[in-house]
Amino acid sequence: MARAEFRRVFGAEARTAGAAGWQSNALSREAYDAADLLYGSDTRGAAPFFPRIDGRVFRTLEIPSTLPTLDELMGRPEYPDDAIVDHLMSLLRDDRLNVFTLHAEIEGMGRRELFRELLAAGKRQRVKYVRLDDCARELLANRDAIPVCDQTYAAIDGRSGAVATQG
Q1: DSSP bridge pairs for 17
Q2: Which residues of 93-123 are buried (b: 16+ CB within 10 A; e: fewer)?
Q3: Do 78 and 86 meet the contact criterion of CB atoms below 8 Å apart?
Q4: Helix or strand or coil: residue 51?
Q5: For strand 56-57 and strand 50-53, is the pairing parallel, antiparallel, or unpaired?
Q6: Helical packing angle, 81-91 and 112-124, nearest 10°
Q7: CB-CB contact of 50 with 87 (8 Å)
Q8: 61-62 and 56-57: which strand pairing?
């Protein structure tokens, strides 16, 4: 039903999906494969991979979030508002795809100014912003080079409960 509604609203098939709260399992991976999605972004991890759950390897590329979200940092004594942007910028690495997940209700609403500061810091440091669909196409051009990794559940610093992670 969600795919049909997406098609009705946008006039095209969805090419990607992301699990709310990084809650992903074999059933959602099956749905992604059946929908022939270009990629999913359902986990926290370090690099793109093909997920394996209970020994089964899924064919939809996973591009994990690699950076903490603002809500995982906000309100913590070690990350006062005036230190969050510098901290996030310090986590960027030149040797990998850096994926930051934003939440409309946080970055688009209550913490808009903090998000603006993050974008300005990225501009100052000449961060190159890329589209994940473009990255997925580039990666999938050489499928054999993409690792298969277990998808597990683990705690993430600053987030309650367990989330899907790259094993």
Answers
A1: 40
A2: eeeeebbbbeeeebbeeebeebbebbeeebe
A3: no
A4: strand
A5: antiparallel
A6: 40
A7: no
A8: unpaired
Q: Residue 70 has which token pair?
A: 């603002």
What pLDDT, on the 0 to 100 scale, is given for residue 89? 96
Whether pLDDT at 3 is above 90: no
At residue 16 the predicted structure's pLDDT band, cuts being 50, 70 and 90, is: very high
Averaged over 146-157, what is the pLDDT?
96
Per residue in 97-130, pLDDT (tens digit) is 999 998 877 777 778 888 899 999 999 999 999 9
User: Is 6:13 a contact under the CB 8 Å cutoff?
Assistant: yes
**Between 109 and 66, the higher pLDDT residue:** 66
Q: Where are the alpha helices (DSSP H) in the chain?
A: 2-10, 26-35, 70-73, 81-91, 104-105, 112-124, 132-140
Contacts of 80 (CB under 8 A, 6+ apart): none
